[in-house]
Amino acid sequence: NAGVTQTPKFRVLKTGQSMTLLCAQDMNHEYMYWYRQDPGMGLRLIHYSVGEGTTAKGEVPDGYNVSRLKKQNFLLGLESAAPSQTSVYFCASRTGNPNYGYTFGSGTRLTVV
Amino acid sequence: SQKIEQNSEALNIQEGKTATLTCNYTNYSPAYLQWYRQDPGRGPVFLLLIRENEKEKRKERLKVTFDTTLKQSLFHITASQPADSATYLCAPSGGYNKLIFGAGTRLAVHP
Q1: Nearest to B33 by CA among B11, B56, B10, B8
Q2: Is B97 near chain A, with CB under 8 Å?
Q3: Peptide bond before residue A39 is cis, with ω within 30 degrees of 0
Q4: Nearest by CB: B43 against A44, A98, A107
Q5: Which of B8, B49, B103 minimises the CB distance to A101?
Q6: For a Cys-Cys bond, which of A27, B12, B66, B106 suits B50, CB 3.0-4.6 Å?
Q7: DSSP letter string over A3-16?
Q8: Which of the four pLDDT bands, split at 50, 70 and 90, describes residue B39?
Q9: A55-110: per-residue pLDDT in tens?
């Protein structure tokens, strides 16, 4: 079982460029989440999905878009990257039963110059 | 707005002692609270979940308490080992579908 896989692991973008971060899970989880983590701050929720074809905004959604066309994949897009989006991005998933914790990926370190 | 507070200063303890980490939350009443461990360069790993109607939960050397009156959770590691050194994140539920994470407390266990 691979769990939650994020690609790429590292990326450097120039301001204004676009990119897509891919999250894939093989646990048949209903819920998927994208967080960003910055030094001294907690994980902040960007967008999340409660099932295939659904998405919802989290705490810091501006500048990001997401899609969940397949249950196992959750894509995070940056249309026009800004230096403020330099961060470590984590994807997580969980089963529909809230008694269980999240399974996180290993993260994508993104630098926007 | 909902706010989570964890000690920003690292906690340094001697091997074999009990480590106690604190999580305080304000402006809401979570239905449950989770604790995660995060190692440098890695994603968080789920440790324990405690519900609002549970006072205490244990798992091996770990113990979590949840005081809804004080709006506080305490996380204990007994007989701590150097391998327990990591950052520990508190995450009260912020609604049915999502968690709100604290910034974490770094624990360093010295031999």
Answers
A1: B56
A2: yes
A3: no
A4: A107
A5: B49
A6: B66
A7: -EEEE-SEEEE-TT
A8: very high
A9: 999 999 999 999 999 999 999 999 999 999 999 999 999 998 877 899 999 999 99
Condensed to tens digits (0 to 9), the pLDDT of residues B1-26 reads: 778 999 888 999 999 999 999 999 98
Selecting from B34, B43, B46 the residue whose C-beta is nearest the C-beta of A90 gives: B43
Q: Do B46 and A45 touch (CB under 8 A)?
A: no
Q: Is B32 on the interface with A (CB under 8 A)?
A: yes
Among residues A110, A101, A85, A102, the alpha carbon closest in space to that of A22 is found at A110
Q: How many CB atoms are located within 10 Å of the residue A106 CB?
A: 15
Provide the mean pLDDT of chain A: 95
Residues 6+ positions from B26 with CB-CB distance below 8 Å? B2, B3, B5, B71
Does residue A45 surpass a pLDDT of 80? yes
Please say whether the beta carbons of B25 and B3 come within 8 A: yes
Do B98 and A90 lie within an 8 Å CB cutoff?
A: no
Shortest distance between the Cα of A67 and any Cα of chain B, in A, equals: 17
Which residues are within 8 A (CB) of A110 and not within 5 positions of it... i.e. 6 or more apart? A10, A11, A12, A13, A19, A21, A81, A85, A86, A87, A88, A89
Residue A1: predicted pLDDT: 61
Give CA–CA dist B97/A49, Å, rounded.
9
Smallest CA–CA separation between A110 and chain B, in Å? 13
